[in-house]
Amino acid sequence: MPIEQTRASGERLAHLDHDQLRQLVGLIEHDPTADPFPVLGWDAVVWVVGNATQAAHFYRTAFGMQLVAYTGPETGNRDHKAFVLQSGAVRFVLTGGVDPASPLLDRHRRHGDGIADIALEVPDVDRAVAHARTAGATILEEPHERTDAHGTVRLAAIATYGDTRHTLVDRSRYRGPYLPGFVACTDVRRSPLFQALDHVVGNVELGQMDRWVGFYNRVMGFTNMAEFIGADIATEYSALMSKVVANGNHLVKFPLNEPAIGRRRSQIDEYLQFHDGPGVQHLALATGDIVRSVDALRAAGVEFLDTPGTYYTDPALRARIGEVRVPIQELAARGILVDRDEDGYLLQIFTKPLGDRPTVFFELIERHGSLGFGKGNFQALFEAIEREQERRGNI
Ligand SMILES: [Fe+2]
Fold it and tell me: What is stated as this protein's family in its record (predicted)?
């Protein structure tokens, strides 16, 4: 299948070509003809928040995203407001209940601000659902169509960990700004601070990681990537186990974490408590220039985790990371981490939690050949996260 047809419309919209995707998110060659559950790419990350009006302002002004579509009372939607924001190929949908009886408010009461739906674009919704059903998935919405003046979308939804779902979308016959029911918006053009979604990480309960790895293997035909974090990666205080599954061309990657037994409560336990169950822990946003992105985000008030000063002076680390495109002093000044594997290196940094609860946060990632996730940085990262956890009194 030609690359043009295997790319999701989100990527087409942002004019990212095959080489750019390989560089940004580690896209690999893949023959989709034998794939039991072909996925074209990410469709949208759908959030439920306490105040979508203000969250949309935050992601536009601080994260440089562009408002492209809207639904709400003014457009005939009495239940909720939803703002569709875009940065490069990344689409966020921020939803918040308007009607006091909206089920979105019940969800928000339990989980706080967070991600309800990791929507994926697929070429054939019915085939995907049929395969998922055979593999034992819970079908939340059977395949159905929605139509407006811009055309027709075919949709279905399957359940994954916690209260998270995957909506499956075929938008090949649709030309509107997002979905039927949304109106297009014009917004000031900004230079995007991130261009693509690299991976979405789920936190699940102790002992459940392999169950969900098996779910993605069976239901979506995803394969396991090499990165594996076992009990060997731990600080004195906390630990996690992690495995990564990906679709055929690695556009869609899902690391799955579970807590491991530590001397004190792990960061995954803290998440599970404050999110009240499993859910999305972080989104990794791919950028071609992490230094520029971090500077712009910091200037807008976004807070990042501190990196221990010793990280940059440790001779073992300096020897391991070798030469990278940014001088080490520039990285140290911003707290940007480096990891290297046999394929290349990556630069990464993590924000503090985005909302009131210590749950979902972002990673910024700039890849240079590496297909990893920063395993070598887990130790340094854990120590930084735990200092924050300690300040919140949750260790
Ligand atoms: Fe990550």
Answer: Belongs to the 4HPPD family.
| Cα 200 to middle of ligand 1, angstroms | 7
- For the chain, what's the residue count? 395
Each residue's pLDDT tens digit in the chain (395 positions)?
Answer: 333 444 556 555 566 888 888 889 988 888 888 899 999 999 999 999 999 999 999 999 999 999 999 999 999 999 999 999 999 999 999 999 999 999 999 999 999 999 999 999 999 999 999 999 999 999 999 999 999 999 999 999 999 999 999 999 999 999 999 999 999 999 988 889 999 999 999 999 999 999 999 999 999 999 999 777 776 665 555 578 889 999 999 999 999 999 987 766 788 999 999 999 999 999 999 999 999 999 999 999 999 998 877 788 777 777 777 889 999 899 999 999 999 888 999 999 999 999 999 999 999 999 999 989 988 787 666 676 777 778 888 87
Ligand 1 centroid to Cα of residue 176, in Å, is 32
- Alpha carbon of 350 to ligand 1 centroid (Å): 8
Closest CA to 341 of 307, 377, 305: 377
| Distance in Å, CA 273 to ligand 1 centroid | 21
What is the C-alpha separation between 384 and 220, in angstroms, rounded? 35
SS3 192: coil
Q: Which two tokens stand for residue 90?
A: 């990344």
What's the predicted TM-score (pTM) here?
0.93
